[in-house]
Design goal:
It is a single chain. By secondary structure, the protein is mainly α. The chain has one domain. Helix content is about 80%, strand content about 0%. It contains nine helices and no strands. Helix 1 packs parallel to helix 8 and helix 5 runs antiparallel to helix 9.
């Protein structure tokens, strides 16, 4: 791999992550609820999902999934219903009177684990990721060079792009929490729930062939 292709790949990775989607919505919400530092747990889940998908592509499973409309639709449907589940939970919690920022979050070990798992599941069932990696990764891999090392380098670049972009969105969420402090904090959950509800609806319609 040459330096220029790696720079190009880094640029593509940043653009791909910057496009608003479930990962972005979760980053903004995590930043608003728990602060930037604890939003890293969610970012770790996204990075872990990308590593899993990169391994799938390296082993050839990514191309097989993309080539099969049935399995791709199945992944899309699983992700859609999980997003729907999260959206309903957010909308239900928005009816309560709580503050957006949760200062007790660092003491809830199960919550940090749940946060990481939630972001991992959302990211790994995102059909856009299943389409993105098989299309983008192979052109940057030289078959005459060690394959595993090249995919490892690409994985590091993608992980750095994930953290960079999601940190920006988490910071945006943290700033929004300060503006919506107090009784207005419930609007964060409402907007979060509505956004995920819209994303899940689009995925369900795509799975059914209506989009």
């Amino acid at each position: 791999m040459e330096n220029l292709p790696l720079v190009t790949f880094a640029f593509i990775s940043v653009l791909g992550m910057a496009v608003p989607g479930p990962d972005v919505v979760l980053a903004i919400t995590n930043g608003s609820r728990y602060g930037i530092r604890h939003a890293f747990f969610g970012m770790a889940g996204v990075v872990l999902s990308d590593i899993v998908l990169i391994c799938m592509v390296a082993l050839g499973f990514g191309a097989l999934l993309v080539a099969s409309e049935f399995y791709l639709s199945a992944v899309r449907m699983v992700g859609a219903f999980y997003l729907l589940f999260i959206a309903i939970g957010a909308l239900r919690s928005s009816t309560g009177s709580r503050h957006a920022f949760d200062p007790g979050f660092p003491d809830k070990a199960h919550s940090t684990k749940a946060l990481m798992v939630r972001c991992f599941v959302v990211a790994v069932t995102n059909p856009e990721a299943w389409l993105f990696f098989p299309a983008v990764l192979p052109p940057f891999v030289d078959s005459n060079e060690p394959i595993a090392m090249q995919y490892a380098v690409l994985a590091i670049i993608i992980a750095a792009a994930d953290v960079f972009v999601l940190m920006l969105y988490a910071t945006l969420g943290s700033r929004a929490a300060r503006l919506l402090a107090g009784p207005n904090a419930v609007w964060i959950d409402r907007l979060y729930g509505i956004a995920l509800l819209g994303l899940s609806s689009v995925l369900i319609l795509q799975s059914l062939g209506h989009l």
